[in-house]
Structures are given as structure tokens and as C-alpha cells.
Amino acid sequence: MNLITQGKRLRAKSLILLGLMLILLFLLDIGLGSVRIPVSDVIKTLLGQQIDNSGWQGIILKIRLPRAVTAILAGAALSLGGLQMQTLFRNPLAGPSVLGITAGASLGVAAVMLAAGTVTTTFSIRELGVDGSWLIIIASTLGAAMVLVLILGISFKIRDNVVMLIVGLMVANITIAVVSIWQFFSNPEQIQEYILWTFGSLGGVTNEQLGALAIIVLTGVILTFFLSKTLNALLLGEDYAQSMGLNVKWARVAIIATTSILAGAITGFCGPIGFVGIAVPHLSRSFLNTSDHRTLVPTCALVGGILMLVCDIISQVPGSQTVLPINAITALIGSPIVIWIIVKRKNLKASF
Amino acid sequence: MMKETRTILSTTNLTVGYKDKKGIKPVLSNLNLSLEKGKLTCLLGTNGAGKSTLMRTIGGIQKPLKGEVFMQGKPIRSIDAKSLSKQLSLVLTDRIAPGNLTVYALVSLGRFPYTSWLGTLSQKDKDIIFMAMEATGILEFANKHIGELSDGERQKVMIARTLAQDTEVIFLDEPTAHLDLPNRMEIFHLLRALAVESDKAILLTTHELDMALANADHLWLINQNQTIDSGLPEDLVLNGLLEEAFQRDQLQFDYELGTFKRTSNQSKTKVRLEGDVILKRWTRSALERAGYEVTPDTSDLEIKISGSLKAPLWHLNHNDTTYKTIQELLIQLNNQ
Fold first, then answer.
1. B149 in contact with A at a CB cutoff of 8 Å?
2. Would you say B128 and B111 are in contact if contact means Cβ atoms under 8 Å apart?
3. Transmembrane segments in this chain: where (chain A) (predicted)?
4. Which residues pair with residue B36 across a beta bridge?
């Protein structure tokens, strides 16, 4: 039994290490960009001290801090959404984007942007301010929940996980098709706004909106942690979980609700960010070599945050004026990492 | 009187099966069965006979079409999932492969009904997990991952999980499928020992006749009338119910060997065998495969077996020749 306590200590160490990495990358993300700001000045500003360059202070507090916080929130939320979907469907390919949850959120946002556009043509969605942001969050969460409920309904009929995944992909395609038709009949100006949103952006969240987003994501993270024991039982499949006294129907609803809140809110504010939701749970499981959700939930949140910060640093192309779409960077950076992990550690496939 | 109190699970006029839009599809009906503590009961039936359906129904996963299942005198549908999980645990046929789960973590999942909201294990939980792993002999791979285990070891881990769940009744669905003979025997012996020593009521499904006959205290036999005969294995053999249950064309139960064998309608050359019991048994099996019929009556063809078990000799009366192997004997017989 000594080995078991050893494993626990190792996990505690890994969590501390990941936490430190997150803080370091957070400071780097604020420091790097079109203008390079020394990390010491970043720390001073964050601690509320005055620095010599007041321009830098403005950049840090008004632009880069909300952006970095959004990156952490987005990474954590999408990773936990993916973790829950992978465990619920017991499928390593599951994730918010694959099962059409992101597509559902996009439909919600498209409904608001394209329909709101027809009513008040001159107002783009960001000019709607805080009210607009709530509208988008609610629309995208409802869109995500709608697709998830649909998939859940079908999943009662189908017990095979691979078939379920194909169904999820089809539902995603249908949702995307509906958005396409909607776009086809909309004005070019409205479509432009929507297309910009689909590229994904961590910079569009203002300080006021950030509070709302943070509350929602933190609630989702806490809810997911509360679901750890349930998720652990589901690792053995629904029949076993039920035989151990778990109310499987309730568990499904809770997991799906939590995932749609997490994925829906992030998609609403930052656009459909792919890849993170699938990759991070695998990276976490692979590094810590565990399937225990009590460890995986905090680890996924940290690794997700770290990965998004790295992607954000790269997307800003330090030292240049260019900002690349975050959606492309997550896939561009993340996919090779996952391939490397698969080749290096052969335990990825055995996760399910 | 004594028997009544030993019964832990029983059914009355139970009908199990499926219901869909086209109507009711009963699989097994009129079941009045009882499961006793301290006994290993085998549910024996051919593929597709309804073994899993029955197990799912009396395990409370599936609803019965008719009748009632009682767990310690209470109707099972009136027991909530959480209480039931402290009385009944399962090993299912689903191949579970969460590769990153360690053996210890999987066994400790059995404590699910007893732990707090976060699933933290108390010292008592840890002691029970330790005992469960010790009883199944899997302590040595506590920290291995499930993906690294052989099929036999994995099955033991799943059995340890049910022990950690600490229930009086354990159901196992085809626990020895995919296992080789030594592993099959080991699992059966383990389950029997658990039933006797821990006074648990263990029910398992199998289609392996020989294993069930050798190890079961009690047999539930699915017959061809879509109901179940229950009794001591040997009683079911002798009253012919076992043969009836597996009855197929060209299949006949050999009451001496305790296995089924193929029969054909072709007329066969009769052979009479004499000699040591063991040598006769194996010679007979070779002759029957080659299409001869062994008869106790006098026959034109007679084989006398002599010599020791290690160095037997077969003497054929036809040509008055002695052979050292059955193979040589058969070649000579076929040439005639």
C-alpha cells in the first residue's frame, strides 16, 4: 500500500508544478505582445504599484489582463467539458466540439447576431454592452443545451458509443447546415460579424463582461468537481454505475447541464474554440497516469489554462502587430503535442 | 424451516423479456426460483436462451413483464438503488477497459455506496478493500493498470470489486467466457470458496456444462419450454432434464462421461473393449471419433488392452496383432 500513498504525493507535486507553470505563463502572456513589457513591471502593476510607463499600465490592465484571464477561463472550461463528455460517452474522441455542442452554441449566437441584426442593423453585438453579453451567453448556452439534450435523447436509444459519436457528428453537421442557410439569407454586414466571431478571439471580452464569464466558469468548475465521484463510477459504464447505487439519469442530466454551461459560455464570448476540449483530458490522464476524476478535474483545469496561455502568446506573434485567430493556433500547436504524446506514451489508447 | 431462512432472493411467477411497440416478447416465464446463502448457483443455458435477461431482471436493472422478485422478503422494485447496491453487486459481460485505472482504484470503486460525496475512503473502507484484494489474490498487482492485466486477472479484479461492495448477493454474467481452462477452474473455485467461507449467495451464468456440473451447489437450468428447472446438478442429470434442455439433432448426452457427443444415423461397426478402466475410456473416445461403436456385448471385433498405464498394449483379435499406440490400431482397423 506504500505505492498508493507515493502516487498521491506525486500527484500533489504535479498539481503544484502545474500551478506554478500557470502563473509563469500568465505573467509572460501579459508581458509579451506587440509591445514587450518586462515581467517585473507586469508584477508591479498587478500588485497595484505604480510603474514609470503609464502607457504600459493601461495596456496591462485594460487589454492584456482581461485577455490572459479569459485564456485561463476558456482553457479550463473547455477542458472540463471535454473530460466530462469523454467519461460520459466512454469515448476518447468525445468533446464539446465533436458532439455538436459547440455547433449548438454557434447556432444560438448566430440566432442572436443575425436576427438581432435584422432588427437593429447598425448595432453590432458588442455595442449591446453587458446586456448583449448576457444575451449571447444565454443564447449560446441554450443552443449548446439544445444539441446536448437532442444527443442525450438519442443516446437512450443507442447504447454503442461509437455509433453515438457518429450520431453526434451528424447532429453537429445539421446544426452547422442550419447556420449556413441562415447566413445565406442574411446581409453581408451581419455575416461578417458572425464570421469574425467564428475565428475565435480571447480579446473581445471587456472587463465588465469578464466578471460574468468568471462567475459562470467558476461555478462550472466547482460543479464538475462535485461530480468527481459520479464520473468515477461512470468509468465502468452505466450498468455498473447503476448497480453501485448511482442515479444514472440524474447523473447524465447533471453532467450535460454542466458541460453546456461551460462550453456554451466560452463559445458565446470567445467563439468556437476547437481541439482543447479533446486534447487536454488526454494530456492530463497521460501525464498523471490516473483516471480518478478527483485528481483529473483540477489537473484538466490547470493544463487547459496553460495550453490556452501558450496558444494566446503564439497567436499574438510577440513583437509584431499581427494577431492570428486563436482557433487556428489551438489546433496548430495542440495537434503535434497530442501526436507526440501518443507516440511517446502508449497508454493513451488504453484510456477507455 | 432452516431452508426458508437461508433463502435471500426469490421469484414468484416471474416472466422476463422485452416490451416494444410490436408487443411483449417473453423470454422466460413461470419462474419460481430461490437463491440461498452460502451456495454457488449456476444458471445454465444455451446461447440466446435468456440468461442475461433473467440476470438483469432479478438484479433490478430491467423490469419484469410479470411476477415479482423478492430480496430478503421485500419486492426488489420497492428497494431504492442505494439500498439495493448494498445488498447486490454485479460482474457484467461488458468489457471494461479504462486503461488508466489502477487495480486498487477499480476495487475501491466498490465502496461507492458507502463513501461521502467526494468518495474519500475511510480507514474501514481501506481495510475492506484490502481484504477483498487478499481474498481474490490480486494484492500483488494493486498498482498495475487494468490494461496491463490478463483476462483472468481482470476477472479477479472485477470479483474483488463486488467483495468491496460488501453485498450478500453477487451476480456474475459469464465470468469465465474468454478464459482458458486453468483460469476457468481457478475462477470457479474462487467463487465457490467465497460462497462457502463468506456465506454469500453467488449466482453465475455459464454455458459451460462441465464446469457447472463440477462446481455448482445448485443449478438453474433453462429448458426448451422457456422456463427453468432447478435442483442439484446430479439430480438434473439423472432425471434426464439436463439432456432434454440441450437436446439437439445428432446430439446425445453421454451419462458415463458427463458430456454431450454427436451421433449419426449411419450403421457402425461394433467393437468390444476389455481392459483397464482409464485405458478403455480413452480408447473408446478415439474409436467413437473414428466412427466405431463400442458395445458391451460380444462382437466379431474385440480389442484387449493390457500392459501398464504408461506403456499400454492393444491386442486386436482379428489378426492377432498387438499395437503400441491407438494410432497404429486405428490405421489397421481402417484398412480392413
1. no
2. yes
3. 98-123, 135-156, 162-185, 210-230, 250-283, 295-317, 323-343
4. B7
Torsion over CA: A205, A211, A212, A215 (sign)? positive
* Percent with pLDDT over 70 in chain B: 96
The chain B residue lying nearest A346, using CA atoms, is B99
What DSSP designation does A51 have? -
Nearest to B273 by CA among B293, B289, B291, B259: B293
B110 neighbourhood in chain A, CB within 8 Å: 244
Comparing CA positions, the residue from A260, A271, A247, A326 lying closest to residue A80 is: A260
The residues with which B89 forms a beta bridge, in sequence order, are B170
> What's the pLDDT at A127?
53
Where are the domains positioned within chain A?
38-351
- Are the beta carbons of A290 and B109 separated by less than 8 Å? no
What are the chain A neighbours of B142 within 8 Å (beta carbons)?
1, 3-4
Asked if B100 lies within 8 A of A350 by C-beta distance, the reply is yes
List chain B residues with CB under 8 Å of A347.
Answer: 99-100, 145, 147
Instruction: For residue B269, give how far its alpha carbon lies from the nearest alpha carbon of chain A (Å).
Output: 54
Q: How close B307 gets to chain A, by Cα (Å)?
A: 56
- CA A241 vs. chain centroid, Å, equals 27
* Three-state secondary-structure class, residue B254: strand
**Sign of the Cα pseudo-torsion (A324, A330, A331, A334, in order):** positive
Assess A162–B contact: CB distance below 8 Å, yes or no.
no
Residues of A in contact with B63 (CB under 8 A): none
Q: CB count, 10 Å around CB of A226?
A: 14
Closest residue in chain A to residue B170, using alpha carbons only = A243
Establish if A244 touches chain B: CB-CB under 8 angstroms.
yes
- pLDDT tens profile B72-100: 989 988 888 889 999 999 998 876 666 67
Which A-chain residues 290-309 have CB contacts (< 8 A) with chain B? 290-292, 294
CA angle centred on B66, ends B60 and B67, rounded to 5°: 75
The whole-angstrom separation of Cα A317 and Cα A315 is 5
Band of pLDDT at residue A123, cut at 50, 70 and 90: very low
What residue segments make up the domains of chain B, in order of their start? 1-87+206-265, 269-335
Cell of B238: 439423472
Q: Indicate if the pLDDT at residue A136 is higher than 80.
A: no
The set of cell numbers assigned to B282 is 480413452
CATH fold group of domain B1-87+206-265: Rossmann fold (3.40.50)
**Is there a contact between A42 and A3 (Cβ–Cβ < 8 Å)?**
no
At A26 the pLDDT is 95
The CA distances from residue B107 to B110, B136, B159, in Å, are 6, 11, 9
Whether residue A195 is predicted with pLDDT greater than 60 in this model: the reply is: yes
- Shortest CA distance to B217 belongs to which of B186, B188, B240? B188
End-to-end CA distance of chain B: 65
Q: Tell me the ipTM for this assembly.
A: 0.81
CA distance A107 to A151: 16
Residue B115, chain A, CB below 8 Å: the answer is yes
Q: Which residues of B touch A244 (CB under 8 A)?
A: 85, 89, 109-110, 112-113, 165
Packing angle, helices A276-288 and A65-88, rounded to 10: 70
Class of domain A38-351: mainly alpha
Q: Are strands B301-307 and B34-36 parallel, antiparallel or unpaired?
A: unpaired
All residues of chain A having their beta carbon less than 8 Å from the beta carbon of residue B112 are: 229, 232-233, 244-246
